[in-house]
Design brief:
Length: 490
């Protein structure tokens, strides 16, 4: 049973619109709670958000049945605070139980000794779809532009790599990960179905682990005949992997030939075993081609994690991070600081492939309000130059190449020069998203969870910006309203 909000106010609670916040504190939770308070007061926006959340939470169930669960408004508040303050679920649980202003914003009374389990918070927050969070972000941005309409006229565009939560991938470590899962699934599946042949699964994994460790030593030391010694140690590991994977296929064939495969738990184990067997074979094939046969394997055929299979490798030449593992995200920042749009790029596309389509989409979302847009050289192509000029009145897109760049600089307008001068400020927004909103490394699982995590971080940043605007209007001299940002950036 779920409610949108608590309509009947308790004696020990106060209206959300009058919740006291410590404006002498510069903690990031203050502007976020103030922004949530503004959303709650705005009846129209609140109802739209609660309907969106209800559609996700009770997509396949009735809100009128079952025991009491979190209200839709509580889910919104916890989802906003999670990455708005860059918290893990344990810290979020502690705040939900101990932070008085947060509990009052969630409509929990002072006399109510209500506790939250971190698993319960996680289960509820992960019910929200990325599309729902994107729609909520658009509503927050619309509220902000209602306060500062000039902010929508400018846009700064850039991309960054949001890392996946994986260890550094090597062929040997990926083979070890795959065989660990294959052996564990096969042993459990054999025991559950009464089939024999996997009594020594722990011994087999120890052999895999020792071979992988020896490979790590050889790869770390290098030295004379490094390539030959590496091949010498890879052969037994690949042979052992082939034997284990063949036995796993035989086990699955035996299982399918029996009647016990109708058991739901065994079928789930069989599906997991099939997946990890397929992925481990792919990793072994890449290792054989790359190490033993000396081939150059393209990135599109490589697998960088068996658990986050959507991970991609990027060589962007960043200082301190020449190689990054994750996914590339494209963001649009307006003149006030709102991230008006965030797009998770496909693995096989880069900046110049998506910028025209996404700029057209953002312009439609903001009803054609964007007049000036700035980009960096990575977005340039002759076609993009022409198309962006049709979408934006002033498109600042520097050309690549020293000669073309110099010619463009000589013919540049004042608008172009100003936009280019202010464009590096978007790096500050990216740094705030990575350091302040947890987007340096995704802590959620699966590609769907990755998209949700990106939108949660954007939501936290936009609520923070909205809260700062409201604080500046309420008491511009208070500590909570302090900001080093200029009023309008181009």
């Amino acid at each position: 049973m779920r409610k949108a909000t608590d309509r009947q106010q308790r004696l020990d609670s106060q209206p959300i619109g009058s919740v006291d916040l410590n404006l002498k504190c510069r903690d990031e939770i203050i502007p976020i709670l103030l922004a949530l308070r503004a959303i709650y007061i705005d009846e129209e926006v609140r109802q739209v958000i609660l309907r969106l959340v209800a559609r996700d939470v009770n997509a396949e169930s009735s809100r009128k049945l079952g025991r009491r669960g979190m209200s839709y408004w509580e889910i919104v508040v916890l989802a906003a605070v999670r990455l708005g303050c860059n918290l893990d679920y344990d810290k979020l649980q502690n705040l939900a139980e101990q932070h008085r202003a947060l509990r009052r914003t969630m409509e929990i009374g002072d006399w109510e000794s209500r506790s939250f389990d971190w698993r319960c918070i996680q289960d509820n927050v992960t019910l929200l779809r990325p599309e729902t969070l994107e729609r909520i972000n658009q509503l927050v941005v619309k509220m902000g532009h209602g306060l500062v309409p000039e902010g929508a006229k400018t846009a700064r565009v850039d991309s960054f790599v949001m890392g996946t939560n994986i260890h550094y991938p090597t062929d040997s470590s990926l083979i070890r990960d795959g065989l660990r899962k294959v052996l564990a699934c096969a042993a459990e599946l054999a025991e559950g179905s009464g089939l024999s042949g996997w009594r020594q699964h722990e011994h087999l994994y120890r052999k895999v682990r020792d071979l992988a460790r020896e490979l790590d030593r050889v790869a770390g030391r290098k030295g004379a005949d490094y390539r030959a010694r590496l091949q010498e140690h890879y052969r037994p590991l690949l042979d052992l992997a082939g034997m284990v994977l063949d036995r796993a296929d035989e086990l699955r064939a035996q299982l399918l030939a029996t009647t016990v495969c109708s058991d739901a738990e065994l079928m789930a184990l069989d599906a997991e075993l099939r997946q990890f067997t397929r992925l481990t074979r792919q990793v072994c094939d890449v290792a054989r081609r790359r190490v033993l046969e000396g081939q150059s394997v393209p990135n599109c055929e490589k697998l960088f994690s068996l658990f986050e299979t959507h991970t991609q490798l990027y060589k962007r030449g960043k200082a301190g991070e020449p190689v990054q593992f994750g996914r590339q995200a494209l963001i649009y920042e307006d003149g006030v600081g709102f991230v008006t749009h965030a797009y998770l790029m496909p693995r096989d596309q880069d900046d110049r492939d998506v910028v025209v389509q996404q700029t057209r989409k953002v312009q439609a979302l903001l009803a054609g309000a964007i007049e000036r847009g700035s980009f960096d050289r990575g977005f340039h192509s002759p076609e993009n130059q022409r198309e962006l000029a049709k979408i934006l009145a002033h498109a600042c897109l520097p050309m690549s190449g020293s000669r073309q760049s110099a010619e463009q600089e000589e013919q540049a307008t004042v608008e172009f020069r100003q936009s280019r001068q202010r464009h590096p400020g978007i790096e500050s927004a990216i740094n705030a998203l990575q350091m302040g909103n947890g987007l340096a490394r995704c802590r959620d699982r699966t590609e769907r969870g990755f998209s949700r995590y990106l939108q949660l971080g954007i939501l936290g940043r936009n609520l923070h910006v909205l809260g700062k605007l409201l604080l500046a209007r309420e008491d511009a001299e208070c500590q909570a309203a302090y900001s080093r940002r200029k009023k309008i950036a181009a």
